[in-house]
Design a protein that fits this description.
Blueprint: H1 10-25, H2 35-51, H3 67-70, E1 95-100, E2 103-104, E3 113-114, E4 117-121, H4 139-143, H5 151-159, E5 164-168, E6 176-181, E7 188-197, E8 202-208, E9 214-223, E10 228-235, E11 242-251, E12 256-264, E13 268-277, E14 283-293, E15 297-306, E16 312-322, E17 326-335, E18 342-352, E19 358-367, E20 372-381, H6 385-393, H7 398-414, H8 420-436
Parallel strand pairs: 1-6, 5-7, 6-8, 7-9, 8-10, 9-11, 10-12, 11-13, 12-14, 13-15, 14-16, 15-17, 16-18, 17-19, 18-20
Antiparallel strand pairs: 1-2, 3-4, 4-5
Helix pairs in contact: 1-2, 2-5, 6-7, 7-8
Length: 439
């Protein structure tokens, strides 16, 4: 008797996916490493094989087709050059760490040291027996596999050839800036970063640059009690770029984590965030602004877990979509029973500049505590014609009026940026993009 599961049943589909995953990974050779890193990579590969790689029928991928992220080779993507504006964050005193096509470039980078900072590369600790990273590498990624499976993050843990490991021991005023430069049309970037901020310490982390034709970046963040990390990321330029990022953050008591991402252009961009508020009175703010024109698919997938009393979380995501662009937001706030006095806020909104655009949203709240304040809202619409008429009636040209209204729409997300100089840099980039894409 044939005991194989029917292909159209859930068990049959899982079996087919696991078989396809085994075939896809059969020739995979993990990067050279020893000791704790070799064990972490092997465990991550085991997680991928047990879960299977994602498919379009998976609940958390039904709005975004992962096919282009799973091909053996990256699809070619033309390098998009911008010569009429300065480098991102150029006017800010920062410690630059540069990767070119996913490879660390010491000639373009500053020395990997600074007061209150311990910085090294993942490749430099691959053969060490003892390092602080061994307690963090792959740990949060593994914890983040439930209740939602994230096999692409596990695959990154297994395959990442390099990344930056940062241990912060004091209040660092000079931001650390990760710059992803690109030269090759088929560059395929796989990086895994670790950040540990000790008790009472704080740092600002910047990320920018096109990176590669295809990019996979995982960042694991651990904040001790009273620690702070402010994260600002800009993803832009290349129209054909495909990127998938994961941010895992675990917060202690009174810790603060604030992250903002600006995305402009890109054929496929999916940014996933998983945050645990494990200590009392922790604060986590996640925000993003995305602008796309034409072949643009942008997906923000967020999961915030409140596990301790008195914590605050905010999710503010805005998207402006032109000429058939697609925006996705999947956000969840989970409040566990001990997390009394939780304050959770979630907002996702899109501005559709024409009828061909789409905004697909899935906001969720799951609450097991009694004394909480939680809300979520999701809206989608076009520019308010009354507001546009008001500005036009006062002599403002139509393109300028639309730009003012778009910037006003995005303002709540930009307000989540802690430093005003960084926020102003983002506003300037937005204005330039809107000028280039004015109808």
């Amino acid at each position: 008797m044939n005991t194989a599961a029917a292909p159209n049943t859930r068990a049959g589909r899982l079996a087919a996916r696991l078989a396809a995953t085994e075939t896809r990974l059969s020739g995979l050779v993990l990067p050279d490493s020893a000791g704790w890193l070799a064990r972490a990579r092997a465990a991550a590969l085991g997680r991928v094989k047990a879960m299977g790689l994602p498919g379009k029928r998976d609940e958390y991928w039904r709005f975004t087709d992962p096919a282009d992220l799973l091909t053996p080779e990256a699809k070619p993507a033309e390098v998009f050059q911008i010569t009429d504006e300065p480098e991102m964050f150029m006017g800010i005193d920062r410690l630059k760490i540069v990767f070119v096509d996913g490879v660390f470039s010491p000639d373009d980078s500053d020395p990997l040291d600074g007061e209150g900072l311990e910085i090294t590369r993942l490749s430099d600790v691959a053969a060490t027996d003892i390092h602080w990273a061994q307690d963090l590498y792959g740990t949060l990624e593994a914890e983040g596999q439930a209740p939602v499976q994230r096999p692409m993050a596990a695959l990154n843990t297994a395959r990442a050839t390099d990344g930056i490991l940062i241990r912060v021991t004091a209040a660092v005023t000079r931001p650390v800036s990760l710059v992803y430069q690109r030269r090759g049309d088929c560059a395929d970037l796989i990086l895994h970063h670790l950040i540990r901020v000790e008790g009472g310490a704080q740092m600002t982390l910047l990320e920018n640059g096109p990176g590669a034709a295809r990019a996979s970046i995982v960042t694991e963040v651990e904040l001790a009690d009273d620690a702070q990390l402010h994260h600002v990321r800009a993803m832009g330029r290349d129209h054909q770029r495909r990127a998938h990022t994961h941010m895992f953050a675990r917060l202690g008591a009174r810790a603060q984590f604030k992250s903002f991402t600006l995305t402009m252009n890109g054929a496929l961009v999916r940014n996933e965030s998983m945050v645990w508020l494990n200590g009392e009175n922790g604060v986590a703010h996640l925000a993003g602004a995305a602008l796309g024109d034409g072949m643009f698919h942008h997906d923000d997938t967020v999961f915030v877990t409140h596990a301790a009393p008195g914590c605050e979380s905010r999710q503010v995501f805005k998207k402006v979509l032109h000429h058939g662009a697609v925006g996705v937001f999947q956000g969840k706030i989970l409040v566990k029973q001990p997390a009394q006095l939780t304050d959770g806020y979630q907002l996702s909104q899109s501005l559709l500049m024409d009828d061909a655009c789409q905004f697909l949203a899935k906001p969720e709240l799951e609450i097991y505590a009694d004394d909480v304040k939680c809300s979520h809202g999701s809206t989608s619409g076009e520019i308010d014609t009354d507001q546009l008429f008001y500005l036009r009636a006062r002599g403002v040209p139509e393109d300028e009026a639309k730009q003012l209204l778009i910037l006003a729409f995005l303002a709540e997300a930009l307000d989540e940026i802690e430093r005003q100089d960084l926020a102003e840099d983002m506003r300037l980039r937005l204005k330039r993009w809107l000028n280039r894409h004015a109808d």
